[in-house]
Model the fold of this input.
Amino acid sequence: MFDNLSLYLQYPFVRYAFIVGILIALCSSLLGVTLVLKRFSFIGDGLSHVAFGAMSIAAVVGLSNDMLIVLPITVISAILLLRTGSNTKIKGDAAIAMISVAALAFGYLLMNLFSTSANISGDVCTTLFGSTSILTLSKAEVVLCIILSVAVLIIFVLLYNKIFAVTFDENFAKATGVNADRYNLLIAVIIAVIIVLAMNLVGSLLISALIIFPALSAMRIFNSFKSVTICSAILSVICSFIGILISILAGTPVGSTIVAVDVVAFGICYLIGRIKKGE
Amino acid sequence: MALITVKDLSLGYDQQSILDGLNFTVNEGDYLCIVGENGSGKSTLMKTLLGLNEPLGGEIIMGDGLKQNEIGYLPQQTQIQRDFPASVKEIVLSGCQGHQGLRPFYSAEDKRIAKENMQRMDIISLEDRCYRELSGGQQQRVLLARALCATRRVLLLDEPVSGLDPLVTTQMYELIAGINHGCGDNCHKEHRYMLGHGHYGKTTIIMISHDVDAAVKYASHILHIGSEVFFGTKEEYLNSEIGKDFITAADGKER
Done:
């Protein structure tokens, strides 16, 4: 088995897959805690469907680099969705459901009507459940992914205390002079970037898992915001590493394997949490 | 010059007014209790004072160099906070966030202030405990310490004793009275006026309360809002028609 692995690791595309996979897992786990606590667990799902819709537009228009369309559209949707928290006409969860289903429907419709490829259902399945495309990444894509991930990491570390204050008690933060709206906006933009990045890895249906599971697992065991954040980042990296490893060795689909490992990790953390409480 | 002067204030949401023509003043060191029936606009008034809501009309004038962000706030607890994984230390420290500006990390001075306020609220032994595992009274102390990190000048408290049992409620009221007079938790009633013994400077208190009995016991001024509006000192309130009626009604409900 190890011989097999070292053989695989000689190929650059396998190394790329590991680098990208681990970076994406790291980034997506960071904001998980905030999103779970703000009751925005499903924003990952909603936004990734929007990204799916945007991708099909890009495919129809025939853009070679679909990032140019997907990233801005997703960022705008993220801003709109997180803003609904303060505007009560349509509640946050309903708005997410609305936008995500609509984007999914229109995306599929567009792909069907104007498709240029012969294998539509194959294309759709790829975008929904993640593709083997993580194994076919070009060097340029890897570089882009590294730049975006590093940017997300730096912004998160610099804003960590502000994100905490805004998540824990938005009204208090606002009342005492923190510009909460600005940080909510930044959180929205970061989430959108992470989701567009992560679509390559697990596809748009499974993205929520990557964002939510590590945070929920860490919350079973740890009690402070800092330890939960650190633990969920570590867990997420380990899970995606193991997931990619298994999928390469056993030939399973990358995205669903990573999510399956995340689920197992959650089960273990849940048990540890129960035992800790029982003491 | 009064600390806060409210002139002809109209309150409400989406151009629908709940309350019109509100006038009152708060001076340094006052303990103002806002009482009134449910739905009379107490929480809206508090949000407007905090600058979270725009007033529909009238104005709020801050005097004595008080800035908008120098008003500390003890909100009613939200569902989010009940399962938030955060340590006491992290929450208290987040009270310093308002002064941070764009600085990303807390300074040693911020940490010292947080520690001092935890000592003052007698929760220093809990600093590494998880907030969601604390009792209701302990949680309120944590949020008070956080509010004191934000400011020492004015505290706005929104129903600070709701959901607490009678003993803890009394302790909470004593603690708030202590903050008003500028001393810490272990400062008993008879020592409250002594200087130099854990003295922190007076803090003006504005509190929303259901509990009119406690309001007339601890407050120096009462603002009663609803169909009728009353503002004056506690003594004036006790002698007014509206005050007498409300207190009798509240007593009747308890019996």
